[in-house]
Amino acid sequence: MMKARVGVVMGGMSAEREVSFSSGRAVAEALRSLGHDVVEVEWNDTLGCLEALRDNPIDAAFLALHGRFGEDGCIQGLLEMLGVPYTGSSVLASALAMDKVKSKELFRLFNVPTPPYYVLDAGVPLEALAERHGSFGFPVVVKPRREGSSIGVTKALDLQAFRRGVQHAREFDQDVLVERYVAGREVHVGLLDGRVLGAIEVAPDNGMYDFEAKYTPGRTQYFMPARLPATRYRGILNLAERAAQALGVTGAARVDLLVTEGENEYVLEVNSLPGMTPTSLLPKIAESAGYDFAHLCDEILARARLHNGIAESHPASAVVEHVDEASFDLDELAVARTTQRRVAARQAV
Length: 349
Known about the structure:
The protein contains twelve helices and twelve strands. It is α+β, with helices and mostly antiparallel strands.
């Protein structure tokens, strides 16, 4: 692809901020090695992110963000307003993938199997957990409704551990997802713009692929491809593809599944901005499909675009030409005037 001026957006305000920096710096180095003009855009707060985008006009944004405000459609909406093409999924698909409850509702609608669950909203006090839990049984997995796949997650074997798990999850989100624990192999499928790249099996030494197992080298064994019979392996790939389609996810994505000994498969979630750190799963999967890390980043960048549905010949940014300049302050004008150049440069990506 042609060389572009790329803003690699990293940092953010979620619990995965430091992981995002690891992803972003690795991506920036890889894109520079291929000759791209790379600007590292560190997001420390919303105003700072806007200022960085204003002061460093770019042709496209490579999103190396994780968690809230990065994966949930917020930064995507900002970039749509600025007319800056970006990697990953649309505002809507990003929000749906980040919301574990809405994801599950759509999985069920599209006949994508997912573990049984219920939701504890903010109005349910800890004293009422036993009554609310009822006959759902144990063990369960307790998760914040809207956070990264390994943030605030607890496996609870009894009511006492369940209460602790709910308290922990509510440190990240007032709404909590309670999911029936399913014993099985953890398999993760990588996709690139709808095309399945392969499936990797993870075997953490503590039995659960939590934050520590995910980001600590040596804590997890990886099997690429996943240790499954050929027919079942193909079925897993197909199921992951259906899950991504149910949410409308595009660009690079990772689908997390559980595969049981009883021949059942369950989709846990779809990650719309997979990690790009040295221990991340998508680069491992992509390598087996023939992409080294730099060329994977290049392929992801090549798919950067806007998702607002407005025709190329009539971009949203053209509206600024019909607005009285007196209604803008100087900073807003600077953003508006550079937006036209960014949209015109989209063909370079």
